[in-house]
Specification:
Chain A: Pfam families: Rnf-Nqr (PF02508). The complex is a heterodimer of chains A (214) and B (399). Chain A has one domain. Chain A has 214 residues and is an all-alpha fold. Chain A is 61% helix and 0% strand. In chain B, helix 1 runs antiparallel to helix 2. Classes of the chains: A mainly alpha (214), B mainly alpha (399).
Chain lengths: 214, 399
């Protein structure tokens, strides 16, 4: 037995692959398309969502017995909004440039379907520790896809990774650019993010046939 | 032992194995298969998919040959402007042909090798026969790209177009978007510097830019979009002695191809005619707007808007798109009434995009892709309308 029981570790590991919020449940697509042009933004977004969903799930789970079910959506919204504002302020204080780049999308974490979905589906019916694991797991599953998409889009679209020119300099023509390689501008447009996610879904389902729906 | 026997032997040898589709395809591409069907109905028609595709390819051959000559001609004429004084006399020369073949044939080869390679791989993985869908696409692709497009870009785009545009939907006959235009659209958005502007349409223009002997290769559309007077006459444009994508410059040859397609009943005359009408209608509207004085001379739209309405049919790739790509039977509307709507909107929107978006001087690509997406919807409403009409008639009869 490790740190977590088998049932608990399933809460974290399942959403990473076989029950991934983006590729299997097809939630949270909008932000995955919008902010994945740069790897850095994807990573920050992933961390932000892990924070919001992890804490949010615990808070909702603690309050689950005292929230009147008629106004539970409003209560959930207040909780997410508070957490999102914290993230937003922290980013503005410590990573101002990046927060400008992510602009409205940090605020729009509120509307990310994964968050409300986990509140509704899990936190309202489970204890705080299990809710916390579920929140971390789902947000990490979301984050992994974001980082994969961000990796390919930044590498192929701008020829950089986290801002480092890994493929050479396109202006002074070094590295790959010396032999005629050019960046693929299409990768920076949102439609290509959709196609990259589609390819991830394709690869995942052809590796694990059980995921294919009839 | 002849080629036919050899192919047949190979086919028999690999029967039932993973590689079978590849050999079957080779065999049936060159010869009529020697097996007969064993069950079911036997409807015989000579124009199967392969023959249909080959007919379209035949209609494209004049454009390809003209494109080869034109590639050379544009290059030499850009260097020595006096050649343009007698286009016909200086057009069909060996110099033009050799330079043109040197630049165009690699595009054709890359397009076919990469595209068919992807098709073969998918056929083997999925275990079905190789489909003929790529035969026409492979010929269209080199004709609709700029002459100097790097070959690796073309290869990447072909892989993208065949996999994402066609195979993910289930292969030939199941695709929503025209694969050739998907490939072009991919190039257009991925590598815009190689796909638009005034330096890509003539061989060598890009390398010579900035040097004393720099050559200009602005297309008519490009000039009009910037309110310049185009340097080519409408007759040049009709015969095709103008810079442009490889095979789309000669409206005359496209017209012949269109007649050939209509005569062999491969291309839909409804789509072609309605698309022409749509383009004319939009052109007339713009002419009317200019005549009414709503658009002033200095406006950035003036050049294209004030262009006489029927010129739109001759300049740019509109004619080529309408004849060879809007009529693609897989992605077009299927109902006759739907074809009229589909075609009309293609012409209409092509000219609209052309005029209002100088960043996309050729609107026909986007217009066809857009209408490809809407074609099933158009069909749906046409069929529903027909059902409604007949229900009414039935009710009137029984009442």
């Amino acid at each position: 037995m490790g740190l977590l029981s088998k049932k608990d570790s399933k809460l974290i590991l399942d959403p990473l692959a076989d029950n991934n919020p983006i590729t299997i449940q097809v939630l949270g697509i909008c932000s995955a398309l919008a902010i994945t042009a740069q790897l850095k933004a994807s990573i920050v977004m992933a961390i932000s969502v892990i924070f919001v969903l992890g804490i949010g799930n615990v808070v909702i789970s603690l309050m689950r017995n005292i929230i009147p079910s008629k106004i539970r959506i409003i209560v959930q919204l207040v909780v997410v909004a508070a957490l999102v504002i914290i993230v937003d302020q922290v980013l503005k204080a410590f990573a101002y440039e990046l927060s400008k780049e992510l602009s409205v999308f940090i605020g729009l974490i509120i509307t990310n379907c994964i968050i409300m979905g986990r509140f509704e589906a899990f936190a309202l019916g489970n204890g705080p520790w299990r809710s916390f694991l579920d929140g971390i797991g789902n947000a990490a599953g979301y984050g992994i896809i974001l980082i994969i998409v961000g990796f390919f889009r930044e590498l192929l679209g701008s020829g950089t990774l986290l801002g480092f020119k890994v493929l050479g300099d396109p202006i002074s023509k070094t590295g790959l650019y010396a032999i005629g390689y050019e960046n693929n501008g299409f990768m920076l447009l949102s439609p290509m993010a959709l196609i990259v996610i589609g390819i991830i879904i394709w690869v995942q389902r052809s590796r694990n046939k059980a995921l294919i729906e009839e | 032992m002849g080629l036919k026997q050899n192919l047949h032997k190979l086919k028999e040898k690999y029967k039932g194995t993973k590689m079978a589709p590849a050999f079957n395809a080779l065999h049936t591409f060159l010869y009529t298969p020697n097996e007969t069907t064993h069950s079911g109905s036997h409807v015989r028609a000579a124009d199967d998919l392969k023959r249909t595709m080959n007919t379209v390819i035949m209609a494209l051959i004049p454009c390809l040959i003209f494109g080869i000559f034109n590639a050379g001609y544009q290059h030499y004429a850009a260097i020595d402007n006096t050649l343009r004084l007698d286009p016909l006399g200086n057009f069909f020369t060996w110099d033009n042909f050799i330079l043109g073949a040197w630049t165009v044939l690699p595009l054709v080869i890359v397009s076919y090798v990469v595209g068919l390679g992807v098709e073969f791989i998918f056929a083997i993985i999925k275990g079905h026969e190789v489909e003929e869908g790529y035969l026409v696409t492979g010929m269209l692709v080199p004709l609709i790209v700029p002459i100097d497009i790097p070959l690796w870009m073309l290869a990447v785009a072909v892989i993208f177009g065949v996999v994402i545009g066609k195979e993910v939907f289930g292969g030939t006959g199941m695709n929503i978007l025209n694969p050739a235009l998907t490939i072009r659209a991919f190039l257009f958005f991925a590598y815009p510097t190689w796909m638009s502007g005034d330096k890509v349409w003539v061989h060598g223009a890009k390398e010579m830019a900035g040097q004393p002997d720099a050559i200009s290769g602005e297309t008519i559309l490009g000039s009009l979009a910037q309110n310049h007077e185009p340097v080519y006459s409408m007759w040049d444009s009709f015969w095709g002695f103008i810079p442009g994508s490889v095979g789309e410059t000669s409206t005359f040859l496209i017209l012949i191809g269109a007649l050939f397609l209509i005569f062999t009943k491969i291309g839909s005359w409804r789509i072609m005619l309605s698309a022409v009408l749509g383009a004319l209608a939009m052109g007339l509207i713009f002419n009317g707007v200019v005549d009414a004085g709503w658009i002033k001379d200095g406006s950035s739209f003036y050049g294209l808007m004030s262009e006489t309405f029927w010129h739109h049919l001759i300049i740019g790739g509109l004619a080529f798109g309408i004849v060879y790509m809007a009529t693609d039977p897989v992605t077009a509307s299927q109902t006759n009434k739907g074809k009229w709507i589909y075609g009309f909107l293609i012409g209409f929107i092509s000219v609209l995009i052309r005029v209002f978006n100088p960043a996309y001087p050729e609107g026909v690509m986007l217009a066809i892709l857009l209408l490809n997406v809407f074609a099933p919807t158009i069909d749906h409403y046409v069929v529903r309308g027909n059902i409604k009409k007949r229900m009414k008639r039935l009710k009137a009869k029984t009442a």
